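Standup notes
- DV: blocked on the single-chain target, sequence here:
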Amino acid sequence: VATTSGSWYGHEHRRSNNNYVVRDHIQQASDLGGTLASITSAAENDWLRSTLVQVGVPYIGANDQLNEGVF
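- DV (later): unblocked, structure below
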């Protein structure tokens, strides 16, 4: 379940404290009607980091799940 949320230009962003692997985060986002974040600007990245990312490394839309090392 999302524990923190915020809005960036009309897009709702949520952060979860669940300790999932990436496919589980993708499923949770889908269950909530969304997707993992797809950051499109430095400003959005800065906003996400300051608003939602307190510790650790977040999962975003880019991943190498299908081919290790290829994003």
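- Follow-up: The chain has a mean pLDDT of 77.
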